[in-house]
Amino acid sequence: MSPARRPLFGTELKGAGTARAVLSGSFFCAALLLLTFLLTLSVTVTGCTAEAGDSALTANTRIELVDWHISGLWVINCPVCWIRVANYNTVPIKDVTVTYDTYDFDSKPLDHGTYTLDGEVGPGQVKNFIEQYVGIVGVESDKISVHLSTVHPGDHH
Q1: What gap in Å lies between CA 41 and CA 49, rounded to an integer?
Q2: 93, 129, 145, 154: which has the highest count of C-beta atoms within 10 A?
């Protein structure tokens, strides 16, 4: 058989075996598609959904953007924030999640993202989270606003 007519996977299908090979190939493709769909569904439904915080704890928590600057000017452009968290709850909190929005010089919205502060804040305490690299933003980012999203009960609760 000439190289131009050689089958793709090294065997030529002839006669009754051709139907079985095509059928098993179709079954294999269908099974692979089903497996891909199920894996995608499981990751989308469970792995990528944000875990809900405690609304009562969140209501008694305050954040303050003390200072910020852009790191990696014209290269990476990542806001580096100093965020102060005040816990007015009677229990410790952790996983304080904030949302941020950046704006250009004319206050036109540019980027939106979320960031979770790593650490625990004791009851009735204030904690400073300095040098928090919150995410990649556009080169034109001149302003930032930060808002509290969720908090979770601390480990020593």
Answers
A1: 12
A2: 93
